Amino acid sequence: MRVVLTGGGGFIGSYVLARLVGAGIGVTLVGASTGKSRYTASLVAAGDVRFVRFDDPFREHDALRAALADADALVLLGYVMPTASSVADRLLEEFDRNIEPTVRLLRLAGERVRQVVFASSVSVYGSPLRVPVRESDTLSPATPYAIAKVACEQAIGLIGAATGARCAILRYSTVYGPGEIVPRAIPNFIRAALAGQRPNIRGDGLDEHDYVHVTDVADATLTALRRKAHGVYNIGTGIGTTTCDLARLVFELASSRAAPVFDISASVARPRTHLVCDTQVSRAELGFAARRSLPEGISEEIGWFRSQLGSGTPPAGRRAA
Q1: Contact 42, 36 (CB under 8 A)
Q2: How many CA atoms lie within 13 A of 168 on its CB side?
Q3: What is the rounded distance in angstroms from the CA atom of residue 33 to the CA atom of residue 29?
Q4: Could you tell me if 41 and 109 are in contact, meaning their C-beta atoms sit under 8 angstroms apart?
Q5: Topology of 183-209+238-310 in CATH?
Q6: Domain ranges in the chain?
Q7: I need a labelling partner for 317 at 20 to 30 A (CA). Which of 144, 157, 231, 284 fits?
Q8: Is the Cβ–Cβ distance between 198 and 256 less than 8 Å?
Q9: pLDDT in tens, 139-186
């Protein structure tokens, strides 16, 4: 199998790339750079992964067209984070940096690529009326990011129907694990615990999320590719964890007894979030079940953070969870 991959140098993408290479799948990584992952860069340098570089997102490009001509599948993990502060400007950036490039890449692929796997998000459900959420539930995206994911899902479905490609939409729940450096709950709590600080929680801490380990996500992505899956799949554990319980678990595993600090003013600005996946479809059609427990996964991530701190290069980024 030959795969064209976007986002292979990101947090999730580097794990997926490892699975692809380990399975003997030929990979062409496309994008403006190889990303932040040193592992990905080393594979490209060694010639184990082909890299096609371009700065103008997926416009007419001979090398990219040639890569797509030889590809059996297109795996879309790439995402460019907007930098604007206003909602309107962030939406414009989502269209320019994520939605339009996705459509352009699919147009270049045409009818040659017979399979597409797209990394979406459970954020497309917004604040669901019931939990766990099912793939058939009404979508209610409430952020520019979620709106972009819905738009890409629909574009992929529309173009796939026209070209006859099989399209797997994977709605990842909250992904965590070693290598995660973005300012989200788990890395924020780990940083605080290792620095001897108290966990900072926005609101009352009763938000509930489905935390899935990055290795499980990578396995699900490879399985969807191998099975030539066609449909929409929640990729999570089916288990909800509140922010309070998550903070307690992280600090217990890091051997810290610091009590959390609650920013109650944040509760007024936003409602509580309860977003847990129903995973029956992914179990039935992909044979997927998350294997890594939350305590195991967090212990592993704490170890990774300790190793980074020990090397003198502490991971950056911090904000209230």
Answers
A1: no
A2: 28
A3: 9
A4: no
A5: UDP-galactose 4-epimerase; domain 1 (3.90.25)
A6: 2-172, 183-209+238-310
A7: 144
A8: no
A9: 999 999 999 999 999 999 999 999 999 999 999 999 999 999 888 999
- Judge: domain 2-172, CATH 3.40.50.720: yes
Residue at 269: amino acid letter: A
- Local structure of residue 85 (DSSP, 8 states): S
Q: Which two tokens stand for residue 93?
A: 């950036």
Q: Cis bond leading into 183, ω under 30°?
A: no
φ, ψ dihedrals at 8, nearest 5° = -70, -5
pTM for the predicted model, two decimal places: 0.93
Here the tokens at position 183 are 């300012």
| Sequence letter at residue 275 | L
Contact residues for 185 (Cβ-Cβ < 8 A; gap 6+)? 174, 209, 243, 246, 247, 321
Give how far Cα 16 sits from Cα of 9, 32, 117, Å. Answer: 10, 19, 12
